[in-house]
Amino acid sequence: MAWLYPYTYPVAASALGYLSLFATLDQRRDVAIRRLTTDTLENESLHTDEALGVSFSFELDAIELIKALDTLGMPLFAADRDETAPLVFAGGPVVMTNPEPYADFFDFFLVGEGEATLGPLIDQLKALRGLPKAQKLLKLAESVPGIYVPSLYRIDYEPGGPIQAITPCHDTLPLPIRKQYVGDMSATIASSPILSPDAYFANTFLVEVMRGCPHRCRFCLASYSMLPARGPDFGLIRQHIERGLQFTRKIGLVGALISEHPEFEALCDYLRTIPDLQIGSASLRADTLTDDIARTFVHGGQKTVTLAVESGSERLRKRINKHLSTDAILNAADVVARNGIPKLKLYMMVGLPDETPDDLEASIALVKTLKQTHPALNIQFGCSTHVPKAATPFQWVARETSTELGKKHRYLQKQLAHIAQFRPSSSKWDTLQAVLARGDRRLSRWLVEFVRQGANLGAINRASKALQDLNTGNGGLEPIPPLAWYAERERPFNEVLAWDTLHLGVDKAVLYTESGLGATARATVFQAKDRAYVDRPTAPTPP
Fold first, then answer.
1. Quick one: which of 169, 128, 172, 124 has its CA closest to 144?
2. In the chain, which residues fall in CATH 3.40.50?
3. Are 223 and 216 in contact (CB under 8 A)?
4. pTM of the full predicted structure?
5. CB within 8 A of 531, min separation 6: which ones?
6. Which residue from 80, 190, 282, 415 has the least number of CB within 10 angstroms?
7. Assigned CATH for 2-153
């Protein structure tokens, strides 16, 4: 079995999910597995492999996936592979929420967490050896919870428009396919199985502190795809850190919001007792940053604190259910400066639903206030554009054009010149991400043409032009709508969405209610009723 990360080795060697699941499979005596990355494929062959697993974390991973399959000599489309080819499957946050733009490349997808799905999958693959591929895929879809075989689900479209219906090809198939996860993190805590000086985070031992986030920001994929938010107990985290300290002094704390761990204060107290420690961590909520946390970062040599504030406008933060006051952000900056941390990095977005010019001015005012209050603080302002994601309350909302979003970036950059280091994302690449985030399987052949045309910004229009003849329906192919139709269009609630094949634990009606609640700036229904909308674990906890 081969385990592919669709990027280069340094990035793969710092991808905790990819590495920890590799280690889980490698510990099985009945599995022979090897890691593959896009820069190590030249002399590789899959002739002896029964399966090729792919870790799929970002929409644009599709570019490197297509290149990798081509380098490996594999037909790009699953329907074109013969019985001798390995089964190709993928898991990860992107394909767990909307796998449809990539459906034609894969035999099946894992819907949920790898710790819950991989064990039953391997057991069943062994039991099905010798069967023709079609029978094998049908048996997997019928018998293994969380397995989605896209070729077994018929999609009917309105010509050049939305989906009319999704229909299983057999009465025995589930619809929707429900997310599988494990509730007991003590058995599934992820930590680095390898260390490498060539990794992006060189010689850093990564350990998972939290999975998911309890705050339910309405744009956030991690909040809704990883329900319920949970983490291992402090004792287990400490045990894994102590194992890592046998090999390195660099410790990376991984999680969507690590400071929400109920024992994070105890973890910080423990980390400050470790000499010569180097700590790395993800972004924090401003209202969770304390002097104790800051002192822990200083002890670990961390020179930057990153705060995800999303907008300088308190009104807009309430709209997206980020109930974070401006005072809390200013207080967090005080903590950073008071503890001698030289750099403060802010993450914000433009193009959020109902954004007004006043909201942009509020973001500018916030950064200026921070700089005036703490002139010695090096402020970095990272600003992306809002990309509506499947399986979140904002999956229905419209998105502004890349031209409009680019203008907002340029305005912010001009206003904040000499005040903060402004680091905008590319609004055009973000738009392509938005196409895929809410796309359907008609995009698979567009992606192939996009890669053939160079996989750069210029290739977006070239690929669309090259496929114009297919938009007449030649060869029985469904017409592909314009890319803006995918990226920018508001969806009505009653539209059949491409990812309605899946259920991640929150009913569609609840997500829509959340989207509407935001206009009144009320707190999310999840804050009081989290588990009422979340399925219980449906897969056994691995031994």
1. 124
2. 2-153
3. yes
4. 0.92
5. 228
6. 80
7. 3.40.50
